[in-house]
Amino acid sequence: MQIKELQESKQHLRKYIASLKSSYEKTTLLDFSGTILKQLEGTELFRQASCVALYNAIPGEVQTATFLEKWYDKKQLLLPLVVGDDLRLLPYEGIDSLKPGVFGILEPADQETTIPETDIDLIVVPGVAFDRQLNRMGRGKGYYDRLLSTLQAPKIGICFDFQLQEMIPVEPFDKKMDMIITEKEVITG
């Protein structure tokens, strides 16, 4: 598949997933989010991890706010901060430690404290779509692909079941997950 066709295929899939997402009530997606995060808590990867990189959800993603509050005083949690074209992972110290970032997503206000990447035991990743071969498709800006290319920690993609496709278009720089969790199943390699 040519690069142009691949990009068009990804754009088409992003629109398709957005249309599926819009057919669900926010409360339903919130319920699904709770189920997905309970599944995450049950994984050996999460239970063994002492330092976990997560994300602060935007509307339509698996919602993580309650999960962050539940775990930040039990495990070292990190959240991404957008810096130019890259993401930096910084400690999460509670809801009051956040401020709106570049895209209006809440990010850590303390941008000085950093954690060595080698301390990260697990990274939990959002995406627009995933497939059963553990591929992930993001929003097209490459933030997570660049971040994931530098991290050695296991990667868990979390998404709603309707975001899980049999196969998605992938490019060489797209990073595979080690596990994908939906409200209906857990997929491993």
TrEMBL record:
InterPro entries the record matches: FTHF_cligase, FTHF_cligase-like_sf, NagB/RpiA_transferase-like
Signal peptide residues on this chain, from the entry's feature table: none
SUPFAM superfamilies: NagB/RpiA/CoA transferase-like
Top-level taxon in the UniProt lineage: Bacteria
Pfam family, one: 5-FTHF_cyc-lig
Catalytic reaction list: (6S)-5-formyl-5,6,7,8-tetrahydrofolate + ATP = (6R)-5,10-methenyltetrahydrofolate + ADP + phosphate
Single GO MF descriptor: 5-formyltetrahydrofolate cyclo-ligase activity
Enzyme Commission code(s) on record: 6.3.3.2
Keyword set, alphabetical order: ATP-binding, Ligase, Magnesium, Metal-binding, Nucleotide-binding
Enzyme class: ligase
Cofactor(s), by name: Mg(2+)
PANTHER family documented for this protein: 5-FORMYLTETRAHYDROFOLATE CYCLO-LIGASE (PTHR23407:SF1), ATPASE INHIBITOR/5-FORMYLTETRAHYDROFOLATE CYCLO-LIGASE (PTHR23407)
Cited NCBIfam families: MTHFS_bact (TIGR02727)
Recorded family membership: Belongs to the 5-formyltetrahydrofolate cyclo-ligase family.
Name of the protein this chain belongs to: 5-formyltetrahydrofolate cyclo-ligase
Species: Parabacteroides faecis
